[in-house]
Amino acid sequence: MIEIAEVAKRGMTLIYGPPGSGKTSLAMRIASRIADKVLWVSTTEGPDLLREAARRVGVDPSKFDFYDFPRAFRQDIARYILDHIANYGAAVVDSVTGMATRQNIDVVTHSILYQIAKEKPIIVIADEDTPHVSYIADHVIHVWYRKNSIGHYIRYVQLEKSRTHPPGPRYIFDIIEGKGLLYFYPHGTRGPTQLVEEEKLGVTAPLKSVVCIHGERVGKVNALLEKIKDSALFIQIGHWTSFHGIELRDEQIYVVRTFHDLFKLYVNFMSGEIKAEFVVVGGLLNLPEEDRGEYVFILYSLLEFVKFLIFAAVGPREETVRLEKYCEEIVLA
């Protein structure tokens, strides 16, 4: 997501998306990187809430001067920014639709904010796509979320337009309390890796790769998983998993109740709080195809920390084969 912070260093950047998608959090992280002192004008939240929001995303609130303008005084916002922007390295307007009516938003945006942006970077936030502002802005960032088939909310961000960079990929991201934003993006293969013989599983596979262990009987799959259970973390997605019946300690099971839990898991591995040689994932087969890929996408990141990522599944061959496109080695139990 480096290109998003890069483009915002110059000109006017529009961040738009539905309420609760993470626009304000993203704007704070970006603004804190592009200026030492930021003027933040809000028509939606007061200074106390904004200072707390800054701390939540790991940003020093002292870098911001937060000002709350009720919508009744929207005509004063543009004048205030003009009078005070010289004292700041950047400005944020949250939201741009709160400082102008639909009838004159393009005039206010172009005649005031865009002119300021020629000298100082400006970030404007909107709850919806505003075509006039999108057209005027130098850069447009879309932030949104969706609720998937098992009720998990997934956040996305994408650079849709920039006068200095090509459009960017779609990132999956979330907020890590007190630390900042953690994001994942599509990437290529790891390239050549060392082939290792994993005697416990009876396979020879590239180190740090994905292995599928599939079978039609729970007992046969679990017999293989028993061999590695003492050095493995077992991830449960959904209510039923293929490793049901294996005796595990509480700290060996990680239950994914929200999509955010996958981000917390990555942070726990990164900090060393969790250590394992293997990560065994159960429950992927219960997800519809349109949702499964996003879980796999995040789970791949755990290969930074473990020897093998194992997707375990029990069911008829015509069912389990659907997972095999994600694996580099297949073990049939």
TrEMBL record:
Annotated GO MF terms: ATP binding
Q: Boundaries of each AAA+ ATPase domain copy?
A: 9-148
**SUPFAM superfamilies named in the record:** P-loop containing nucleoside triphosphate hydrolases
Family matches, as SMART domains: AAA
InterPro entries assigned to the protein according to its UniProt record, in alphabetical order: AAA+_ATPase, P-loop_NTPase
List UniProt keywords, sorted A-Z. Answer: ATP-binding, Nucleotide-binding
PANTHER family this protein is in?
PROTEIN GVPD 1, UPF0273 PROTEIN TM_0370
Query: What protein am I looking at?
Result: AAA ATPase
